């Protein structure tokens, strides 16, 4: 309907223009080929999905210039036709626009080309997102008007070929089984424009055949159970490949061996162990050479093994790191593959005893920042009362991340903590409260022993009604910490040290918890000096001495 309205408008407007008759007849007649055949029509090629520019011929562009330069300018109707062939022509344009007096009239565009046309230089069309159905014979035609006379002539034509990348039709399965002396057919049908060429490869070596069907026969004494065939289809637009594994019937192999994994603690693990055979397959998993079945009770509800070989962990822990093996079995075959799982986690700082007691003006003390992290930490800092510490004569951060404090005094009392991070996260240690003590304020006891165990009392004078117990005392080693995993508390609050070492020598301090102190016998706090004499005989050991000497100062 819109097209008919445009024609009526053009017819009425044409009466008001006077174009030189010689110009019109010469230019229009020059656009009509004397003999038109399919072979004489030029071709234009463009790829599927890409844009293409439909250009009118040189004559149409020259004609448009002369029409626009005439006085007054002559109106013209631009038509684009899509024909299926020279014998199957369309009489309705898919694009039509009236050009007159520099007025921008709305064009007529058929539904198939909506939102895909952009006009270039007034009469050319840029078509976006080329479709396969766009392949056709295209004609650009200009309709001229001279007073009441309107004449439509054949315009320039070209054939648009839509090139399509290769696409496989009816490919083989990725795995084909063979029996000795029984022919196997492999298929490689591909479509596309231009028609794709076919190339076959066997175990990476190109074969001479280029047919779509390849027939192969395998002998019983083949040197392999698995052969890899690759079919490549290629044309000007692109290429595709299809790989087929031809496998001896009854053989067993992994479609993809296990590969080392690096995962973050807390994430889900889905680890497939996929083997292929035309017989039934069973799987077994091992972690560090121990059957995973024995780990299932440790994993509780977070781990499972599936019949298809999948190892599943709902949440991974750091101790899940290790070497894993997957074994696949058939009735007469067994294969295995292995890999390592590396579980990453943020820094975990091992708590340091707090409070930490040190003698005033002793040579130095060390407080630890022991870190367990994967990957290793990349930065570590120490703070005192929320102030960042740097290396000075007073403070030094050691290579093992510990903090060295030289000549401690009352000014060094406070709350210390370390902060470290790796690529996973940042961690902050517990507060370590340092208290400086004066030895002369304590009553002192001295022990020496060469035995492997010793019991140190918490009070000098005790009776069963007033003695403390293990729940209301805390023990500390001055300027150091209690030996890890080698101490226990007695029922009377005493400290029992076992597997004694020379490094256990030092000063020990028993502090009664404040909430219990008022119910106990009021006695001076004591400081115990212990000498561990590993080179002495047992007969010289165990002597208890109460002294008022200044050895503890």
TrEMBL record:
Domain Ig-like: residue ranges: 33-142, 166-247, 251-342, 347-429, 452-521
Matching Pfam families: I-set, Ig_3
Example GO biological process: cell-cell adhesion
Signal sequence segment: 1-16
Residue stretches in coiled coil: none
The protein's name: Ig-like domain-containing protein
Keyword field: Disulfide bond, Repeat, Signal
Lineage summary: Eukaryota, Metazoa, Spiralia, Gnathifera, Rotifera
This protein's GO CC annotations: membrane
């Amino acid at each position: 309907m819109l097209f008919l309205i445009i024609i009526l408008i053009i017819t009425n407007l044409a009466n008001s223009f006077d174009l030189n008759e010689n110009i019109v007849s010469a230019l229009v007649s020059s656009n009509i080929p004397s003999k038109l055949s399919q072979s004489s029509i030029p071709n234009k090629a463009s790829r599927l999905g890409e844009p293409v520019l439909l250009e009118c011929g040189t004559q149409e562009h020259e004609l448009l210039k002369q029409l626009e330069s005439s006085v007054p300018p002559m109106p013209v109707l631009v038509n684009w036709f899509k024909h299926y062939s020279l014998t199957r022509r369309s009489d309705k344009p898919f694009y039509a626009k009236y050009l007159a007096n520099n007025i921008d009239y709305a064009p007529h565009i058929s539904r198939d080309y909506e939102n895909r046309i952009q006009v270039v230089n007034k009469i050319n069309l840029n078509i976006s997102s080329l479709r396969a159905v766009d392949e056709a014979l295209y004609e650009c035609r200009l309709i001229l008007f001279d007073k009441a006379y309107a004449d439509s002539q054949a315009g320039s034509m070209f054939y648009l070929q839509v090139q399509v990348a290769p696409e496989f039709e009816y490919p083989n399965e990725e795995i084909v089984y063979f029996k000795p002396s029984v022919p196997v057919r492999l298929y490689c049908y591909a479509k596309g424009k231009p028609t794709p060429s076919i190339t076959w490869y066997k175990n990476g070596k190109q074969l001479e055949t280029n047919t779509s069907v390849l027939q192969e026969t395998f002998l019983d004494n083949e040197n392999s159970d698995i052969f890899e065939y690759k079919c490549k289809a290629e044309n000007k637009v692109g290429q595709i490949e299809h790989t087929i594994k031809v496998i001896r019937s009854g053989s067993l192999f992994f479609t993809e061996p296990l590969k080392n994994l690096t995962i973050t603690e807390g994430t889900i693990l889905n680890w497939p162990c996929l083997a292929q055979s035309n017989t039934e397959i069973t799987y077994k998993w091992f972690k560090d050479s121990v059957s995973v079945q024995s780990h299932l009770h440790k994993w509780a509800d977070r781990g499972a093994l599936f019949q298809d070989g999948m190892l599943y962990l709902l949440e991974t822990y750091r101790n899940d790191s290790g070497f894993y093996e997957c074994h696949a079995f058939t009735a007469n075959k067994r294969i295995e593959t292995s890999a390592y799982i590396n579980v990453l986690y943020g820094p975990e700082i091992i708590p340091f005893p707090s409070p930490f007691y040190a003698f005033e003006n002793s040579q130095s003390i060390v407080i630890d920042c022991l870190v367990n992290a994967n990957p290793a930490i990349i930065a570590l800092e120490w703070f005192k009362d929320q102030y960042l510490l740097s290396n000075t004569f007073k403070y030094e951060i050691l290579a093992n991340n510990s903090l060295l404090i030289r000549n401690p005094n009352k000014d060094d009392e406070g709350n210390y903590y370390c902060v470290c991070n790796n690529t996973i996260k940042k961690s902050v240690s517990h507060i370590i409260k340092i208290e400086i003590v004066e030895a002369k304020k304590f009553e002192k006891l001295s022990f020496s022993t060469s035995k492997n165990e010793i019991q140190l009392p918490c009070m000098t004078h005790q009776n069963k009604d007033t003695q403390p117990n293990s729940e209301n005392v805390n023990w500390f080693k001055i300027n150091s910490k209690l030996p890890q995993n080698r101490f226990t508390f007695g029922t009377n609050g005493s400290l029992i040290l076992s597997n004694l070492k020379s490094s256990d020598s030092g000063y020990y301090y028993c502090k009664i918890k404040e909430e219990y102190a008022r119910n106990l016998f009021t006695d001076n706090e004591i400081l115990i000096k212990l000498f561990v004499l590993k080179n002495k005989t047992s007969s010289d050991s165990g002597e208890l001495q109460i002294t008022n000497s200044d050895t503890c100062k």
